[in-house]
Write a structure and sequence with these properties.
about 20% strand, alpha/beta, 5-stranded mixed β-sheet
């Protein structure tokens, strides 16, 4: 059996003497040599198996050797091609090199010249493969470095998030414990007990709200797969949640209007779409003073469902707008108007929107109200329903 460890070579030439002469010169050097009498036959051999180097006649009955260079390199980008011709000219050499040839030999050529050209060609291939492997290793190392940095960033975020959660839970827990201890030890007079119990209930509700919001945020990540979503009318979802929110607004003497200009279909989780509308509208109600106005609109625009909640509330300063979607963050103005809050509502809204391939933003000025707008991609027409 022939040892082809030195290299696999294909000779494509219509002259039998050239084909066999190349075989006799190369085989004793350990090369595995195959031959083809036409360009079509040579191309078929190349498509059947890989070759390290091809000796290619420039003129054959069915095609020019130069025209084979492209399909050869499409099959094997690192295959080295050497043109062999009896019509060597500068123009031919330039044309062959531009087309991807490594070198060319003029007929007749000696065994020594053939072996030299083949060795140099295979060395060029070896260096090319090494360079490709080195580049792949560099890219892999860079990717591993990026992955390592991302893991470290996520680990830092996880630690920070856990510390923040612990800090946010501790305040209401401390207050609740203080109220209960005061009652237990009898430090609270009978006429103050109802007030203390009311405060304890409020702090307990604050804890429950925070835990529920944390669970919702985790659920957005856990249920984000597109395969588990359904095509639904975001207008239908809005119409289901709006009446209850409108009652809450009326209790605060806030006018709340709804404008559904289109009824876009989106691929989404129904519960998360309800959370999206509820959090945005209730946020507007919470931070709008009595006598104010909230306007909720829904429309389509250039392949997007666009929802807007605009209020005439306390507004947000430009410095605060960059942070309002962070977990647990509340502006100083919001804290003064509503002392108790989880600071998770808008971060949950942002996660829901982004997990559904959308975007959300805010336009606001302090003391002049806020306008929250989100965009969600429309569902494909063939999956539309009227849920």
């Amino acid at each position: 059996m022939t040892d082809d460890s030195a290299g696999r070579i294909l000779v494509i030439d219509d002259e039998l003497g050239i084909r066999e002469g190349c075989r006799r010169a190369l085989a004793p050097e350990g090369y595995s040599v195959e031959t083809a009498a036409t360009g079509s036959e040579g191309l078929l051999r190349i498509q059947e198996q890989p070759f390290d180097l091809v000796l290619l006649d420039v003129v054959m009955p069915d095609m020019r050797g130069v025209d084979l260079l492209r399909p050869i390199h499409e099959e094997g980008p690192d295959t080295v091609c050497i043109i062999i011709t009896g019509y060597a000219t500068v123009e031919l050499a330039v044309q062959a090199i531009k087309a991807g040839a490594y070198d060319f030999l003029s007929k007749p050529f000696t065994t020594e010249l053939l072996l030299l050209a083949v060795r140099q060609g295979l060395e060029r291939r070896h260096l090319s493969l090494q360079a490709r492997r080195l580049q792949a290793m560099r890219e892999e190392a860079a990717e591993l470095a990026r992955a390592k940095a991302e893991l470290e960033r996520l680990d830092r975020f996880k630690s920070t998030f856990m510390l923040t959660v612990a800090h946010e839970l501790r305040a209401p827990l401390n207050a609740l414990q203080s109220f209960l201890l005061a009652l237990k030890e009898g430090f609270i007079s009978a006429d103050q007990q109802e007030m203390i119990l009311q405060r304890a209930t409020e702090r307990g509700q604050e804890l429950l709200d925070m835990v529920n919001d944390l669970l919702k945020i985790a659920a957005v990540r856990g249920e984000g797969e597109v395969s588990t979503r359904e095509c639904l009318s975001i207008a239908n979802v809005l119409e289901k949640v709006f009446p209850l929110l409108e009652v809450q607004a009326r209790e605060k003497h806030i006018a709340c209007t709804l404008e559904i200009r289109h009824r876009p279909q989106v691929l989404a989780h129904p519960d998360q779409m309800a959370q999206l509308w509820t959090n945005l509208i209730s946020n507007g109600i919470r931070y709008t003073l009595p006598g104010g106005q909230i306007t909720v609109t829904l429309e389509e625009e250039d392949g997007w469902a666009v929802g807007t909640v605009q209020d005439t509330g306390i507004g947000i300063s430009p410095q605060e707008q960059a942070r309002i979607f962070e977990e647990f963050y509340r502006t100083p103005q919001a804290g003064k108007l509503e002392p108790h809050g989880t600071g998770l509502g808008l971060s949950l809204v942002k996660r829901i929107v982004e997990e559904h391939g959308g975007t959300i933003g805010v336009e606001s000025a302090q003391g002049e109200g806020s306008r929250f707008s989100f965009r969600l991609p429309l569902a494909a027409a063939d999956s539309a329903t009227d849920r």
